[in-house]
Every structure is written in structure tokens, then in C-alpha cells.
Amino acid sequence: MTTTFSLSDAQLALLEQPIEGTYFLAGPAGAGKTTAGVHWMLRLLRTGVPARHILVWVPQRTLSIPYYEMLHRPTAEPRGQVTITTLGGLAQRMVDLFWPLVAAEAGFAHPDEAPIFLTLETAQYYMARLVRPLLEAGYFEGVVIDRNRLYSQILDDLNKAAVVGFPHTEIGERLKSAWIGEQSQRRVYDEAQVCAHRFREYCLAHNLLDFSLQVEVFIRYLWPHPLCHSYLLETYTHLIVDNVEEDVPVAHDVIREWLGRCCSALVIYDYDAGYRRFLGADPQNGRSLATACDRRIVFTGSHVLSTPLAKLSADLARHMHRSFDAEVEKEGKNGKYDEYDIPPVGAGAETDTVVESPQAAVVFEYQRYYPQMLDWMAEEIARLVHEEQVPAGQIVVLAPFLSDALRFSVVNRLEHRGVSVRSHRPSRALREEPDARCLLTWAAVAHPHWGLCPTRFDIAYALMQTIAGIDLVRAQLLAEIVYRPSDGRPALSSFDAIRPEMQERFTFVLGERYERLRRWLLAYGETAPQPLDFFLSRLFGEVLSGEGYRFHTDYDAAAVASALIESVRKFRWAAGGVVGDDGDGNSHDLGREYLDMVQEGVIAAQYILGWRLQPEDAVLLAPAYTFLMRNQPVDYQFWLSVGGRGWWERLYQPLTHPYVLSRRWPADRPWMDEDEFAARQETLFRLITGLIRRCRRQVYLGLSELGEQGYEQKGPLLQVIQRVLREYTNDGASTTT
């Protein structure tokens, strides 16, 4: 991340290197590598390199924020537009630009027509259309997961094939060759293969390109094509590749070839990371790019991590029988890297309170019941914010998974104590986002010809989410009175028709706000239908953003509305020319298609705006991996339910496997229990190491004897923590409990 402190000697030494050359920069999180990358970009611009010749490559868009912020800071001099992209972004741009050259060769049925690019949401929509009849015919009978997860796992199989670099027709065989369990699972893999193949054939027949097909067309047809190859190499002569350990093998293949042809390059590698393995990341393959660079540099130490937290991290690693990126450290000692040391505590960690020991760097709290642990967490955060004046934005609350119940419990407790809080869950289904459901409920009411009748509870909840000052009790009572569906068509009656004594219970202020909304919806319904994203934009701009409505002051709700509108717009672009509810592709009928898709539980695509619009001065509540991919350190971290097995276990994915579908796994080797155990241990090590390296002051560990579901908590993370704390206690130190 970018920071305000002056550059370290190590960063200055890198920036003094000749521009002409390729450099591989390695180091732990917090060593200042991204800051060095940002200033390397500025150095290129200041020395006269045109911005159009600079390419910044990151594995995920959230990791590009430091570069965007530096280029768009208020004091920045206008120097042109640097291209900042991911593999998917570059693939889409090249497919769009060179489509006529390769469309026929790639197998598309209509090479003379424009390509249609799918988002995660629209890809799930088409997958659902193709798989739903197969489900009714008996496919995946033994698989017990939500349908939206089933669709996303088939798409994940296709994505793995594309980013690893093997034909999508091999997915089923690779999964079966590694399976040693019940034979019925082999049938599941065969059925997943059939679904993946049908989806690919459908895409080729209709010029649809999901992420996997975009990458495959780029890697197989465009990158080798002389015209596209020359265009990229001649346009982008200066590369900055950040977080290369989080990228995928085919991206490494392209970068490796590019390094031999560019004028300058800086490749940045993070020790002990690789948090995106479940998305195909290959840290070992990324580290191999060091051999393609002219010079290798390593930053040791940290601008963030204090000495006590560094010792805590080392002790946890020792008890897990893990070592910190031993291969890079060994090469550094053998002189293959130029090593620069970073002071243990940089300017970002300088505070009036100095943490002297690892015992003081970790706070371990034991409670018997889960709600008691949450109460302790909320009290501690309130104390830090109100008594010690810690900025709320310097506190993060982490869990392996963030359920709706946990999110509500944490947010409610913190807001009750006067602490602002924000949350981010990139894999959250659209139907689970209250503000999105609210907007789509009003969309159904405004389009009665769709024949979609929300329940009274949906109407009540939408009223509560919309009108400022109305509570759930009055919202439910109002919905009971005014919501009058008839003949399968929703309708709202006037507030003026309510008996006066009931009007007084709601207050005329709230009644006026409801009536303004109702009249707007009624007036809209009497006009020619518009595309759903147009409707939502108008509803937000003309009504909901005004005074008296919750969206007027709730920036999180406004951000959800913005993301929803973008989602609907991309759905219309992708689906408008292919299918319509009435067969003619009319966009207003696609609105109903979109609502049906949401009801089925489509997983929302990640929009970078969701990160950038979040208020800074608020406690962040997020899954642990989401926080890691934010790549920004904080002063205090709260880890919830450290006894839970969710910190250690992988998500249940019966239709895919992130390790088997990789270049590291031999095609004919079965996946054994010891492989699963080793993978979980390695993942836990990388997770806790990454979290600690992004903490400046203290880590709070919350434990309840009984977890959220009432089961006893004795997970592997708790066991290693207890061994370390027992060691500290035996050394004569006390640990906060």
C-alpha cells in the first residue's frame, strides 16, 4: 500500500538502479515492496517514459488500488494514463480489439458479429439455463449444496482449465484420477464434465465469452498471433508486475516471455503468500520468474511488524513445523539476491505505546459461550476507540467465514456502542444483500406485468430499508394494510385511505414519505417500461437519495445500489441479444429474468468500487482472506472463534479441487489423506503469517468453548496457539486472559 512516510534506504537503493533492466523484488508483506513499485512507476514517468508504454499487472483489481491512488492523488501531475490491468482485463481488451482475427479459428459460430463478455453473474445465469434441465433429469442427485454454488463450481472448473493451461475436456478425468473414495463421486465428476462442455459449446454458438473463454482465446490464439504479439510488446515496453505469487500459471508464462523483450521490468514477489490458490494461484511458478530477471533483490524486515509480533509469528511457525520461504532465503544467503534490511518497526508502527514482548502483543480471551465472546470483542473495540482514541479504521474483525448471523451480531454490538463498522464479502449472493433485495422488491411492484408478487414480509422489509425512521413493527403493520396483490399482480394502496387513528400510529411524516414513493412507482408503471438498470437509476436518483429516505445518508446502501445497477446493466448487455423472456430480446422482460436469477442465489461479482467507497474511519468486518487481498495493515486485529475448524478446513467443493486441477499435481496421482492434511497445514501457516504481518500493535484472539452452532471448539489453530502461549507462560511471563 502507499504510505506517507519517507522511503527507506532499501527502497531508495532500488530506485537508484538503472531503468534499463529487469528486477525481481522479493520480501515479506510489509517490507515496502508495493510502495517501491509505486515509486518505480513514478520514476519512469518523471524520466520521460510515456504513460502509454507502462503496464502495471496485478492478479486482482483490489491490489491495484495503491497505483490508482498515487496516479490520482490531488497533487499528482497529469502525465497520461498508465495501463493497470489483470490477466482477465488484458485478455478481454485484446479479444475485443483483435476479435476478427481469431473468432473463426477459435470456433465461434458468428465470427462476423461482436463478442459478448460475461460477468460472473451473467455466466451463472447461462450456466443455470443449461444445467437446470439436467438437474431435473437426475444430475448431481447425491450433491447437497445450493444450486448457485453448484453453478459456480462448474465455472470454477472451466476457469482452472484456462488459467492452468489444459483442455477443458480433461476436467472430469483429472478429478477422477485423484479420487479414491466412493465410486458415486466419479459419476459426479462425469456430470460436471458434461455441464462444462455444454456451457462451452453454448458460448461458442452465441459469441459468449466467460472468464475462462476470454483467457483461453487470449493465450491460445491472440498471444501467439504476430499482430497481437507485436502490438503488446511494442506498446508496453515497461512492466511492473505486483503480487506475482497470487497470479496463475498462464499469466506467468506470458510475463516470462515478455521479460525477455521489454526495456524494463519490476516483478514483485511476496514471501509465504499465495492466498488465491483456490482461484488457481501458483506461488512456486511465480517465484520461478526470478530466473528470467537480470537482478534479484530481497527486502527483509518490515515497516509494519514490530519485533514482538515477529517473534510471535516465528513461534507459531515453529510449532507448526513450517519455515518462512526457505528457498528464497537460501538463495539470498548464497548470493543470488542483493539483500536490503528494513528496520523492525517502520514509521507506520511508531506509537507512544511500545509493545515490548510477544506476550503483550497477543491478547487471548476465553469465554464459555459464543455470544459472550462477541460481547468481549465489542467491549474491547469500544474501549480502544473511545478511551485510547484508536481510529476505528485501524481495527479489523476477522473470521474464516462471515455468515449473515455473525455479521448482524458484530455490527449490532458495535453500533450499539457508538463504533462505526463496515463489512465486505465479495462472494455474497445478491439475494442476501438487504439493500439489493429492497430495490428489487420495488422493481417487482413497479412492473406488475411481470406477475411477480413479493411477500408481505418482503414489502415490510423494503419499507424499513427505504423510509428513514420507520421500525420493523410499523413497517410490517403498514405492509399488512397497504399491500394488496390481485390476480397475481402486486399493488399498493394510498396512505390517505387508511383510517385516521391508524395514520397517527405511523405519523404523517412517515406516511408522506411512503406516499411519495408509492406515487412515483404508480406513475412509472403507467409509462412505457424501461430497462431495469434505468428504472433503478431513476428510483435512486429521484426518490431514494432524497431527504427522508435511508439511502440519503447511508453510503454503504448507496454503494450497494451502485453495484446492483452496474450488475443489471452488464446483464442486459450480455443477455439482451441472446435471450428474452418473450423470445424477442426485449430489455424490460430481461428485468424479470434478472430477478429470477437473483432468487436462485447468483453469487455477486466483485466490484472494485465496493472497496473504494467504503468509509475509512470504521472498523472493518471481513473474512480473513478478503482482508489479506486488501493488502493494507492495521493496528489491531480481532480473530473470532480461533477454536473453530473453519480456519483450517477447506470449503466443501464436490465438483472441483484447487490442488488437483493445478500444474503441481501429477495427472495420475490420487489425492490422499496425508495430502489433504499437508495442504491444510500449509494454508493455515500462510494465513496466520499473512495476518500477523499486516498487524502493527496487537492481535486479539477470541475463543468460546462452544461455537456458533453449539459444538465444542478444539481446532488446529487453537492447538498451536495454546502451545505457544504455554511456552510463554513457562518462561515466566503472563498472558492476558
SSE topology:
Blueprint: H1 9-15, E1 21-27, H2 33-46, E2 54-57, H3 65-71, E3 83-85, H4 87-102, E4 116-117, H5 120-136, H6 147-164, H7 171-178, H8 184-206, E5 208-209, H9 211-222, H10 226-235, E6 238-241, H11 249-259, E7 264-270, H12 283-287, E8 295-300, H13 307-319, H14 326-333, E9 338-341, H15 358-361, E10 362-367, H16 370-386, E11 395-399, H17 404-416, E12 421-423, H18 434-446, H19 456-466, H20 472-482, H21 500-506, H22 508-525, H23 532-544, H24 555-575, H25 587-599, H26 609-612, E13 619-623, H27 624-630, E14 634-639, H28 673-693, E15 695-704, H29 716-730
Helix pairs in contact: 1-2, 2-3, 4-9, 5-6, 6-8, 6-9, 7-8, 13-28, 13-29, 16-17, 18-19, 19-20, 23-24, 24-25
Overview of this protein structure:
- This protein is of the alpha/beta class and 737 residues long.
- The chain has 4 domains: 1-115 and 210-303, Rossmann fold, CATH 3.40.50; 119-206, no CATH class; 358-427 and 614-730, P-loop containing nucleotide triphosphate hydrolases (Rossmann fold), CATH 3.40.50.300; 430-600.
- Helices cover 48% and strands 10% of the residues.
- It contains 29 helices and 15 strands.
- The strands form 3 sheets. A 7-stranded parallel sheet has the order 3-2-6-7-1-8-9.
- Strand 14 (634-639), helix 28 and strand 15 (695-704) form a beta-alpha-beta unit.
- Helix 4 (87-102) crosses helix 9 (211-222).
- The longest helix has 23 residues, at 184-206.
- It is globular, with a radius of gyration of 27 Å.
